[in-house]
Design brief:
Layout: E1 5-10, H1 13-21, E2 30-33, E3 41-44, H2 46-49, H3 59-65, E4 70-72, H4 76-93, E5 97-101, E6 104-108, H5 118-133, E7 137-142, H6 145-155, E8 160-162, H7 168-172, H8 185-193, H9 199-204, H10 207-214, H11 216-225, E9 242-252, H12 255-275, E10 278-289, E11 294-304, H13 307-321, E12 328-336, E13 339-340, H14 352-368
Parallel strand pairs: 2-4, 7-8
Antiparallel strand pairs: 1-6, 1-7, 2-3, 5-6, 9-12, 10-11, 10-12, 10-13
Length: 404
Amino acid sequence: MEKQIIHLDLDTFYVSVERKMDSRLRNKPLLVGGTSDRGVVAACSYETRGFGVHSGMSMKLARQLCPEAIVIRGNAGTYSKHSDEVTEIIKQETPLFEKSSIDEFYADLTGMDRFYGCYKLASEIRNKIIKETGLPISFGLSVNKVVSKIATGEAKPNAQLMIDTGHEKEFMAPLSIKKIPQVGDKTYQTLRHLGVRQIRTIQEMQEDMMIRVLGKNGSMIWRRAQGLDNRPVIAFNERKSISTERTFDKDTIDVAKLKSILIAMTENLAFQLRRGDKLTACINVKIKYSDFNTYSKQLRIPFCSADHILIPKILEIFERLYNRRLLVRLIGIRFSHLVSGNYQINLFDDTENALNLYNALDKMREKYGDRSVVRASGLGAKTIGRMTNPFNGLPPVVLAHRKQ
């Protein structure tokens, strides 16, 4: 049976949500993201794109390119709520779906032609989302994920496109190689230096040549250019790691402040581990200095999810890593090598009172929020927290660039 995969993408999602809440913003150039010069554009309206603005750009540069743009910091909780509304509709209307990000979805409609018609069903799902949420959304429909995603990009804004089976290569041939997912700036420049501009050229090349130029990544890009992609729609994604980081509005050399933030980060991520019944065996600290050089160190530890064990280890790594005495631009930590399990009691150090304290603190955080109870040593850190359980199978919310 021929696969039928639909890719749905909420158009300029953050911008659309802001306009839904405030109609005065419609048809005006709008930027959503970090409001300081070091902030990053999380989303931009189509009105700003003619000036060269795009998501991921520094807010300072975006303002220079489009000085008349309205800048909004945005709210992750609000965006998550609207995303959940769309998710619920897709969940009700499709047999199998995958939420790949806060504003992107895949659904497997294979076999629906027997009963209803895949394109008709996809159209009705899109119309229902627009009617019930007031948010614009586009979709692409084809035999696999990669062609459907490219089709969605061609359908935008707020439209739909179906690629008939057998016409995948024909559809993709005249498009820019940048339309292929996973072709970033570096790969794009490498291919452009070879004179490769359109996907058609890659289709005519031998796979071996792409591998020689780009390594293993060349094989994947070559296959995608041919319209080949056998990735299934996956309803649940198991997280391999969790992390958090903060960029400072002003570079700092305040070691006490840096340690306070690290403590708050560790405390919060440890809580996330416990609420997801997870343990970590590898912890990592990252520092980016004012000269943009980035350094990191990691440490393997026995499986753990306890603050009083993780915090000293994180501070130990920091002491070994922070030796340049330069101003710090960014600091972050990551827990990886995650496995399912509950914290194991240390017979020599832990007491029943300590374990009961963890249980009580976690219950309070579940009820009143991640930052409702914190260590005094981490009290100076702001905006350390999450909206939802990171182990609920949904992709992480991409937040506007947070500042400390």
